[in-house]
Design a protein that fits this description.
Blueprint (H helix, E strand, L loop, with lengths): L3 E14 L2 E14 L3 E5 L6 H8 L7 E6 L2 E2 L5 H8 E4 L11 H6 L8 H14 L15 H12 L6 E5 L7 H18 L2 E5 L3 H5 L3 E6 L2 E4 L7
Parallel strand pairs: 3-8, 3-9, 6-7, 7-8
Antiparallel strand pairs: 1-2, 1-4, 4-5, 9-10
Bound molecules: adenosine-5'-triphosphate.
Keywords: ATP-binding, Nucleotide-binding, Transport
GO molecular function: ATP binding
Protein name: ABC transporter ATP-binding protein
Amino acid sequence: MKRMMIEVENLTKTYTSGQRTISVLNNISLAIEEGQMVALLGPSGSGKTTLLHLLGLVDVPTSGTIRLNSHDLSSTSRDNLRRNLVGYVFQHFYLLPQFSALYNVCVPQIPVKSASQLETTAKELLDRVGLEDRIHHLPSELSGGEQQRVAIARALIHAPKILLCDEPTGNLDIQTRDSILELICELKNEEGLTIVIATHDPEVAAQCDVQVEIRNGKLSSYSPLSQQ
Ligand SMILES: Nc1ncnc2c1ncn2[C@@H]1O[C@H](COP(=O)(O)OP(=O)(O)OP(=O)(O)O)[C@@H](O)[C@H]1O
């Protein structure tokens, strides 16, 4: 039996803005096996990024529990788990504009490892994502698809077990989308990563093992084929 990599129980997230309270996630439960690739769908504003932030330990839930790789977050250091277990690909790449692709990939681990140790791993990762001849380019000298590849390499610098991708193909043309999707599928098949992808794209969802949708704060299963 496969082990569970992500377990979420009765998760609730409420934002307070001035006098207003916005209930975004309402009692969500979800279990994702190790090595599974899950599409997270839902209309704009439904809470996909919010849920990814909670799974990535970037934000804390209002109530409910999250277990990653069988670690109960209440008893383990969140920072430690985030640093070791989770890689995050942000919606708008968030590369540092003044630094090369190579340095951008190293950045998250600079406080932890020496530059020479990181450079070797970062070069291997840039090679892995097909950018071996772009390592000294600045983000402004890269195409959108290449910037996304750098962002994926950066998310892998600490060899995470879980990869969370927020709209990884949202700003890309169809061909570039397909190549990024192929890369993400390779990471699942060859490295055994557990992957959650927030997406609006039924084609991306169709490549995933499981599809779930957030609607009105609740999670339900979803069939991408019925939407085409
Ligand atoms: N820090 C915050 N404070 C108050 N409200 C917030 C905050 N962050 C998100 N929200 C609200 O929570 C809801 C869910 O936002 P979220 O970004 O998770 O949606 P999403 O499904 O990822 O949207 P999109 O597909 O457009 O990226 C939105 O109504 C948003 O306005």
